[in-house]
Design brief:
The protein has about 210 residues and is an all-alpha fold. The protein has a single domain, classed as dinb family like domain (Four Helix Bundle (Hemerythrin (Met), subunit A), Up-down Bundle). Helix content is about 55%, strand content about 0%. It contains six helices and no strands. The longest helix has 25 residues. The N terminus is likely disordered.
């Protein structure tokens, strides 16, 4: 439980760091003054393969983001729920930008062609937004696949007490999941049913009725 709590705190801190970078604000590394959590007494072998699960999650997230982005009409890309809040295209580009940024925290070389400054406002073109989403997820997935199991435990003290490369992988997935919910709410607000939900409803309507 202590490790889960620490990861959630790191997720909040680093998600805020991404927002600050894209807003051109100065970012400050998370505080390292906190006492590290007590080491777990559990010495049994891990029963969960974070690497394989992260790759699977990111592949599924890529499919959902790109099909949702495709389903939303171009004229709705500038819609935003309120003044000062990200528009639909800015939300998608925020997710893409985070996918390019987070892996660099564990040493993955920066993606060619990606510039963080003003990235969220760099385009409103639907086809280009979808292209960036695909490039970002492909980059993030390759970063995870290129991380050995041993590297997941490599310390990253600059991110906080006992942080490691596995935490960065965890954050890549958590951040994308967090904003998928937001993207679904946005799509519903402009009258678009998520494609996977529409397909499920279609299948249910064909199912025999008792």
């Amino acid at each position: 439980m202590k490790r889960i709590a620490r990861l959630l705190v790191c997720a909040c801190l680093l998600t805020g760091l991404v927002d600050a970078i894209f807003a051109q604000e100065s970012s400050t590394p998370p505080s390292q003054s906190a006492e590290p959590p007590a080491q777990s007494a559990d010495k049994s072998a891990p029963s969960y393969d974070l690497k394989a699960q992260a790759v699977l999650d990111l592949q599924q997230l890529q499919q959902k983001y790109t099909t949702l982005a495709q389903a939303i009409p171009q004229e709705k890309y500038s819609w935003r729920p309120a003044e000062g809040v990200r528009s639909i295209n800015e939300l998608f580009l925020h997710v893409a930008g985070a996918g390019f940024y987070f892996p660099t925290l564990k040493g993955t070389p920066a993606a060619p062609g990606f510039t963080p400054k003003d990235f969220e406002k760099s385009t409103t073109d639907k086809a280009k937004v979808i292209e960036w989403l695909n490039k970002s997820f492909t980059y993030a997935i390759a970063s995870v696949e290129g991380t050995s199991n041993a590297q997941f435990a490599v310390p990253l003290p600059k991110l906080g007490p006992q942080a490691n490369e596995g935490d960065v992988v965890y954050l890549v997935v958590v951040h994308a999941h967090e904003h998928l919910g937001q993207a679904i709410a946005y799509s519903r607000s402009v009258g678009v049913v998520p494609p996977w939900t529409a397909e499920a409803e279609k299948k249910n309507s064909r199912a025999p009725q008792d």
